[in-house]
Amino acid sequence: MPVDFSGTWNLVSNDNFEGYMVALGIDFATRKVAKMLKPQKVIKQDGDSFYIHTTSTFRDYLLEFKVGEEFDEDTKGLDNRKCKSLVTWENDKLVCVQTGEKKNRGWTHWLEGDDLHLELRCENQVCRQVFKRA
Ligand code: VLZ
């Protein structure tokens, strides 16, 4: 059985989100609000087609893509940049490279036990998030 990330997921831990946001150039006031949030992710996966909706009381962010097909990403409402993004499988991990102004930008999702993990990378900063099923 291939891995299936589908479901509704609640954030339970968020290590170094502050460092990640600083690396993205998010302003102080926005960071103060954003780091208090407990975002929820709604993921719909149909084979290699993904819908990932990250929602919170403050901002939300929708990403839709197909694994292996590069797309133009506009991080509207986050750091408001444009990048070329490509998501690929590395074994059972979903790996995104976001090519643009920021070096070393991307993220990785994987499942571990009942948890959904997300590593967010930008420049020399790594944020580690863990989600549990709602
Ligand atoms: O996740 O790129 O699941 O896009 C944080 C929302 C969402 C809170 C961060 C507001 C996006 C922040 C994480 C205000 C600045 C992300 C991908 C992988 C899908």
TrEMBL record:
Family stated for the protein in its record: Belongs to the calycin superfamily. Fatty-acid binding protein (FABP) family.
Name of the featured protein: Cytosolic fatty-acid binding proteins domain-containing protein
Coiled-coil regions listed: none
Subunit structure as annotated in this protein's UniProt entry: Monomer.
PANTHER family noted in UniProt: FATTY ACID BINDING PROTEIN
Organism annotation: Chloebia gouldiae (Gouldian finch)
One example GO MF annotation: lipid binding
Keywords from the UniProt entry: Transport
UniProt cross-references to InterPro entries, sorted A to Z: Calycin, Fatty_acid-bd, ILBP, Lipocln_cytosolic_FA-bd_dom
Segments forming domain Cytosolic fatty-acid binding proteins: 7-24
